[in-house]
Amino acid sequence: MLGSVIMIAADAQKYFTLRMQRGLITDGMHRYIRHPNYLGEMMIYGGFALMVGHWLPWVWLAIIWSTLFATNMAMKEASMSRYPQWAAYRKHSWWLLPGVF
């Protein structure tokens, strides 16, 4: 449930911020983590795996998270690096999970 809230809030923030101005989003949830949408989505899928109660979904999620999500986040970061404030933003925000990485 928390994953859904994070993902919806991040999507709404991105939508309304980019309607007003183009550029790098550095406030709201993005102030702390650079990929709140992916964090919410990962939490949703992790919740589904917990409900199944078997180890196999975790293997599948590890493969998806380490390939698809990591690749997409790296491409997004490469795209965001064109903004002048990127270096400062990157220094003061976490990649995915505050306090961890």
UniProtKB/TrEMBL annotation:
<dbReference type="GO" id="GO:0016020">
    <property type="term" value="C:membrane"/>
</dbReference>
<feature type="transmembrane region" description="Helical">
    <location>
        <begin position="55"/>
        <end position="75"/>
    </location>
</feature>
<protein>
    <submittedName>
        <fullName>DUF1295 domain-containing protein</fullName>
    </submittedName>
</protein>
<dbReference type="Pfam" id="PF06966">
    <property type="entry name" value="DUF1295"/>
</dbReference>
<keyword id="KW-1133">Transmembrane helix</keyword>
<keyword id="KW-0812">Transmembrane</keyword>
<dbReference type="InterPro" id="IPR010721">
    <property type="entry name" value="UstE-like"/>
</dbReference>
<keyword id="KW-0472">Membrane</keyword>
